[in-house]
Amino acid sequence: MKFDKNELFAKDRTNVDRYADVTSAITVKNLTKTYNDKKAVDNISFSVKKGEIFGFLGPNGAGKTTTIKSILGLIKVNSGEIRINGFDIKKFEKNAKKNIGYLPEKVAFYDNLTALQNLLFYAKIKNVSKEECLSLLKEFDLSDSIHKKVGKFSKGMVQRLGMIRAIMGNPNILILDEPSSGLDPNGVLHIRNKIKELNRNGSTVFISSHILSEIQKMCDRVGIINKGVLVAKDTVENLSKKLNLKPQMSIELEKISDKITKSISDIKGVDKIEINEKTISIICDSETKAKVILAIAKAGGNIINLQTHDPSLEEIFMRYTGEDG
Amino acid sequence: MIEVITNIAKKEFMDNIRNKWIIIITVLFASLTLLASYAGSIYSNGWQDLGVTILIMNSLVNLLITIIALILGYSAIIGEIEKGSMSSLLALPAKRIEIILGKFFGLGLVLTSTILIGFGIAGVIIGFNVPDVNYVEYLIFIGATILIGLVFLSLGILLSCLFRKRSTAMGGAILVFFLLTILWQFIVYFLILITNSFNIGDTRFPEWYFALNFLNPLEAYGTILSLNIPTVASQQIELSSSGYPSFYNTTNMLIALLLWMIIPLSLTYWKFRNKDI
Lengths: 325, 277
Description:
The complex is a heterodimer.
Chain A (H helix, E strand, L loop, with lengths): L4 H7 L12 E12 L2 E12 L3 E5 L6 H8 L7 E6 L2 E2 L4 H5 L2 E4 L11 H12 L3 H10 L15 H13 L5 E5 L7 H16 L3 E5 L3 H7 L2 E6 L2 E6 L1 H7 L5 E6 L4 H8 L4 E7 L2 E6 L4 H10 L4 E7 L3 H9 L4
Parallel strand pairs in A: 3-8, 3-9, 6-7, 7-8
Antiparallel strand pairs in A: 1-2, 1-4, 4-5, 9-10, 11-13, 11-14, 12-13
Helix pairs in contact in A: 4-5, 10-11
Chain B lengths: L1 H15 L3 H23 L8 H24 L3 H6 L1 H6 L5 H34 L5 H28 L3 H30 L11 H6 L4 H12 L1 H4 L16 H24 L4
């Protein structure tokens, strides 16, 4: 990257509203967008803090892409305000976009151009060197295809090239719409590690994905949108608490006795017990898990296997949307 | 701003110069101009005999250059939106006006290259076979052709922004092509017929006929050729340049063509500025 981000930011600081929230990389306030009198996004507000990974979830047609496109200034919103690093996207479009890397859901390039020609085109607008493009192509295992026309690329290769386009120039905000789409398991892992690496180096990541386990592994906070309304925004843990979702323990014992069952059910904080042959499934508070194990031991139980399942983002998602992710 | 426009123009040129349809029509155009120039020039005694040759080349321009320009233009915006590459482009620090201008200049360069290839081949053939080539007139011919090509490119780009689908934009381009190249004469002659504005013995069409022709850039293009290349005017049976009204002069025709280029481009920006991607 040829320009210094801090220097650039300082130079353009006059364009930043003095009252803008400087701790937020992305601020969305009262955003509404309608298509043919139908509200695709209805008065949503949220902010993404600098340096965090924010997961944005919702069923198909919930308003995820409309929100992302609004943040990027790709669509004209009916009302609301969007700020990127403090810059109003409407008034200071160029400054706002200088530090954004974007991976759209539908990754597309110019098919008649080679991978390198495509990247150099974007690199020039982003002020990124050819050396960086070549290095990223190597990192994403596309070195052998740099002179191949993108029209002849597989979906996975296009996705990887799209990721390179998004991260080139080390932008301080990454907006990723379905980053794992079309990738094999190795590719998914590589992208996930890259996102984490970029985040460690200071990038803020706004990520939308259908793979909820992936979001749960990576994100500091999540926002859930349903029918154009932002129904939840918090950490997965806090959302679980709000929904009163509790961990589930599966304990396999050598032998299950009434004494064991009673000693477990007497513990405060245990909500539900289910017995299936030699396995007891218990739903309880996080802080009660140790007490359960202790009670089993005291009642003479011999534990063969123990598994705990924390509330998944999938459960949270389904509770908020009433649908599968 | 200039850097972004140049970069987009360069990309458009590199991308579209490889477009198979552009290659096919360019080869067809170059072959036909070669044929016309060869057949016309081997039997001529001088530049003044080349009127028919230039008229044939003029017809090729009306037919093929307009098609190339519309093919280049009609998918310029909507094609990228449909494909998905426009959102990535607009997520960069590139303004919409820069994208339109970059596309226009880049595609304009593809078109100009096509014209120069075709006319270059014809020029070499004519230069070899004709002793007294009037290069100034030939350059006027090339210049006017580039201009009419850019007008149709501008119209094509406007269509690509007006429609929501690439397929309907193509339909619009076909309609524009038929309207301006084929149907136009039928329409104006039909108007003359029903208004009884031209009778036997009349030496000239009514003034409104000429004014109406400003609505078709191809008429302005043809008039520039008639007014500046006497070999063309001598071949025109319908009307000689002396039959034109006073407002039918080169300056006004150039202004008309420039407006035909600028107005659609301005409308494109106006439409594209508020377009949801």
